[in-house]
Amino acid sequence: MPASHHALDETTRTRLEAVMARFPGVSVLVVGDLILDWYTVGRPTRISREAPIAVLEYSHDYSVPGGGTSPACTVASLGGQSYLAGVVGEDAWASELRSVLARYGVDTGGMVLDRSRPTSCKKRIVAQVTSTLYQQVARIDHVDRTPIGPEVEGALVRAIEQCLPACDAVLLSNYRSGTLTPAVIERTRTLARDLGKISTVDSQGDLELFHGFGIVKCNQPEAEEALRRPLTGDDEFEAGLSELVERLDAQAVIVTRSAEGMSVMTRSGQYCHIPVTNSSEVFDVTGAGDTVIALVTLAAAAGADLFDAARLANYGAGVVVRKWGNAVLRPDELREALNE
Questions:
Q1: Which residues are known to be catalytic?
Q2: pTM, two decimal places
């Protein structure tokens, strides 16, 4: 039967806080597409004479972790040991990304250099309308989506083989930028299974690539695309997720449903819908999915059952959507959300 959970009772809150207290003992390897999110901020002053667009007077630039680096930073921010394996180019964006990751304390020993491609960078032009209101005006993605070559692929696989045995969990973050080749996915899956490690995936579509992993997360449109049918009520979600669990040979599937929260289905047929915790203050949904997969992975590795892991992730996502840009969650913010 579908179960829904709204306000936290004291027992659940205590249990979730106990899970959080175990985060510092958990280590997670994140494998995926490494992206630098670059923001150029300006204040709108007038309409251009050249085209019907606002003229922004430059204010400042800043960068934050994007793609697979985002969940890696969230793991570190919440107290876990965070290791990152992926590919960067030989350029200024790679240096910037390394310094951003160093600030969060992420271990970048598994970052592999590929001189044939640029470091993925998403540049956003942002208008600062007031001191707290920002509006994204345009985005330019510098991304090479061709799959990494055999040599780089081999180096990345070796980095995973070196790091994973010492970690509790592995998280695959797919941003469709060429890093997660069939060979990289296959080796990670086999190794995680052989070593008895928790394995999670943020699939961003491409669900069929991630057969045989523990916990697979996608959003509603991606689930509907894979199932080739719309999902509306809880009955349809329960049936659809059950089908995905079976088809992907997963231990569990989590589908995020935007303003409707998230639905979770386990291999044993347990289904739960978890409503959103914050629907009133949504500023920017960027990074919410990264927060969800990071928290689910951390919590599962800390011994939480899947539904508690999803509840924690739901509260974490409710915090980051209140922030502008690709934000990283802090432990005090998560505790505060649990106690609201």
A1: 290
A2: 0.93
